[in-house]
Write a structure and sequence with these properties.
The chain is of the alpha+beta class. It contains eleven helices and 17 strands.
């Protein structure tokens, strides 16, 4: 099946005053803002693949996360351009912690950094600029002349990190999809993926695309084409120490050189059209049913007690304030929405999971899938961590409960865990022992299995 492709790269590195806010995302606690320093530029990149039945669009962005309302705002403005089919439009965030904070809901900039209402308003104004730039990038790429190409897929391995949540899974797969010009078989574009948290630089105030940006530069400089990075199930995958500016180059060069060596060797799988796309959303249950008035009363008491036990400048204190405000207002959330997307590309399946998905999902999905499967994460929206059942039930026993979302009480958000910074009242639902029907792991895996069987 013939393909045609267009690719466009935008340097969207924020600067004032175009971007009213230069507050940064990725690390909770103290205020953290950029003051004009840039190491590696931040990219937004769009690829359009047309299989003869209309365009399919991937938008990948060097940003830590985008919340649900930002995802929906971008999607609503471009959906008509891809046949009003949600499956035909996919966003992937690189999850660099050295980029701007986008959105004001999850994470909540007040909870994360104690920002003032004026600061929060500036972040919202920056978010408006960001949405406009992303929509324009998609529109411009769709308007470009498309180059007839053939597509090829291959997997390799390298190791740049470890499992930080006391797990045994260390993801090492390097996924590469290349496009070659039909006219002369010359290389046209490289899409590559890996699963590792984008924090190799560490916590400072410098904008940087981190190791994916360094890898992209290596590939582009060596091969002379645009390269696009897609993040995987990196929720528990941490880059090797030390976290420093130099490590960005070290790990990025290692990953980039691996991709270059793969491109320059054989054993590729042909990817054939047409591309069939699917999009669904599931609702992940929380560990507490906040539709039960008695549960809300218990939560209110617990969060009032947290105010007494934490200083007012602690982000766990600010989180408790927000939870109590929700109890007294619109109410606590009762489910955790999760978009899941599949592209069946004829020889390759791309399965894109939203949020900070842990490596167990990659391992379990690969084990139950025949043929080539590329699992992406941080897809479309990122509003928290999605751990597998073993991590969820362990709580603070694994990595201080950070990925589980709770510490000593599984009915409320744990201080210093993801549920604090992302503004959730309780962790996701789990069961003791194997994952039971209706709990987080089973809901996610069952939805993925159903989507893969379509």
């Amino acid at each position: 099946m013939p393909f045609s492709m267009a690719v466009k790269t935008l340097d969207y590195t924020p600067s004032w005053p175009t971007y009213p806010s230069l507050w940064m995302g990725g690390y909770a606690g103290a205020p953290r803002g950029n003051q004009g320093q840039v190491d590696r530029r931040l990219r937004a990149q769009c690829v359009v693949i047309d299989d003869g039945y209309g365009p399919k669009v991937m938008l990948r962005i060097d940003v830590v996360s985008i919340p649900r309302y930002v995802h929906q705002a971008i999607r609503s403005k471009v959906l008509s351009l891809v046949g009003n089919n949600n499956g035909n439009f996919l966003i992937i965030c690189s999850h660099t912690h050295s980029g701007p904070m986008i959105g004001t809901t999850r994470p909540d900039p007040y909870v994360m950094m104690g920002l003032t209402p004026a600061d929060v308003a500036a972040i919202e104004a920056t978010t408006t600029v960001f949405i406009g730039q992303m929509v324009t990038l998609v529109q411009q790429t769709l308007a470009m002349t498309r180059t007839p190409v053939t597509l090829w897929y291959k997997e390799g391995n390298t190791t740049i990190g470890y499992n930080r949540a006391d797990g045994t899974n260390v993801l090492t797969t390097v996924s590469v999809l290349i496009a070659r010009r039909q006219s002369n078989n010359g290389l046209f574009a490289v899409l590559f993926g890996y699963a590792c948290h984008t924090v190799s630089r560490g916590n400072d105030r410098v904008f940087c695309s981190d190791y994916p940006g360094a890898a992209t530069d290596v590939i582009t400089n060596a091969l002379g084409v645009q390269a696009l990075f897609f993040q995987g199930a990196a929720g528990d995958q941490e880059p090797n120490d030390p976290h420093s500016p130099g490590q960005v180059t070290t790990l990025g060069t290692q990953l980039g050189n691996k991709v270059v060596s793969m491109v320059n060797s054989g054993s590729w799988i042909a990817v054939n059209g047409p591309i069939k796309t699917y999009y669904t959303e599931v609702e992940l249950p929380l560990s507490v049913d906040f539709g039960d008035p008695a549960a809300v009363v218990r939560a209110r008491k617990a969060y009032l007690q947290r105010l007494d036990n934490h200083p007012s400048d602690d982000f766990a204190y600010r989180h408790a304030e927000v939870m109590l405000g929700q109890i007294g207002g619109a109410g606590l959330p009762r489910v955790f929405p999760m978009p899941i997307q599949r592209w069946n590309m004829g020889g390759l399946n791309v399965l894109a999971l939203s949020h900070e998905v842990l490596s167990a999902y990659e391992v379990k999905l690969q084990a139950q899938t025949s043929g080539s499967l590329w699992v992406m994460a941080y897809a479309n929206e990122t509003e928290g961590y999605v751990a597998a059942n073993d991590v969820l039930q362990a709580g603070e026993v694994k990595h201080f409960g950070y990925e589980a979302g709770w510490t000593d009480d599984n009915t409320m958000s744990g201080p210093g865990t993801w549920t604090n910074s992302y503004g959730w009242p309780a962790p996701l639902a789990f069961s003791t022992g194997a994952a039971a029907a209706g709990t987080t792991e089973r809901v996610v895996l069952d939805a993925c299995t159903k989507l893969m069987n379509l």
